[in-house]
Amino acid sequence: MLTNAGEGEWKEPLTFSFELSKKENLLYVFKAAMGALPPPSWRNRLDEARTILAGRGFTLDPDDRIQILFGATRRLREGVRQAALKTCGELLDRDGLRTVMTRLLALEPTTPDGPWHTLLRESLDLSDYRALLTEASGKEPVRVSEPSTAYDVSKMTQRRLFD
Questions:
Q1: Helix or strand (DSSP H, E) at 97
Q2: How far apart are the first and last CA of the chain?
Q3: Alpha helix locations (H) across 6-57?
Q4: Which of 102, 116, 124, 133 has a beta carbon 3.0–4.6 Å from 128's, enabling a disulfide?
Q5: What's residue 32's pLDDT?
Q6: Between the CA of residue 124 and those of 81, 102, 141, what are the distances in Å?
Q7: Which of 110, 29, 35 shows the shortest CA–CA distance to 70?
Q8: In Å, how far are 37, 126, 138 from 1, measured between CA atoms?
């Protein structure tokens, strides 16, 4: 219903939607609606979502923006995905954009030739892509602060517990 509403007209269809009294439900509706709209319109739609949330006593936090933009981006067909990433870069800070890209890569954990991997490989430097891939797979490099030594019983000075 929101996808057919014109810009600035989201408030009216949601006015009497009492089942959308929770913030999570509203965020779900916004990301589904934005996923059906062209990415260049997302800036105005995010402003509209912020107004609707404020009218219901909620705020649009940076994490909410990330959640909405990720949900909208993942729903898009392949021809529009590049424009969506560009729009996400305009609407989010650097860390927010990294979070969206990491989540997109995590959608295809076993297909390195999948559409999201291909798009991000073409859009980013190889080192940035590899860093995102590492974050998405959850395999951080293991670092040890000091070498561990083997436990040697022969070096114990007291052999019995009670002497």
A1: helix 94-106
A2: 82
A3: 11-14, 23-35, 42-55
A4: 124
A5: 86
A6: 14, 13, 21
A7: 35
A8: 12, 41, 38
